[in-house]
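Sanity check

After download, print the first record. It should look like this:
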Amino acid sequence: MSKHSTLALTECLKLEVAAAGYDIIVAAVLPGPVVSRIFERAGGDSEAGALEPEAMFKVGETAMPALEAAERIFAQAADGAFYLSTHPEMTGYLMNGRAEQLQAQSAPQLPAEA
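Expected structure tokens:
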């Protein structure tokens, strides 16, 4: 929930800064899988948390290097984008799915397993 609340706060901040007439740029960084130590520290004490490291390591195997992620983020910021994503295709796909779910006013559902 904290990621969604931070994104909503950032979106509101952008509007409030613009309404106040300040010349301040506000942008939201939406990182995908990026190499970091989070993959080494994933999990928790619960039974559900015991499954988390395995899933995180799978994601970590395809994660992009931090320098490449930073280059992508800075390039988008230089172009004036608001949503700055390390994986724009994935972000677009997820945003489209969310928009469709909201337009249909349907309840959230877990994806079907392949």
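If your output differs, re-run the checksum step. Summary of this record's structure: The beta strands are 28-30, 83-85.
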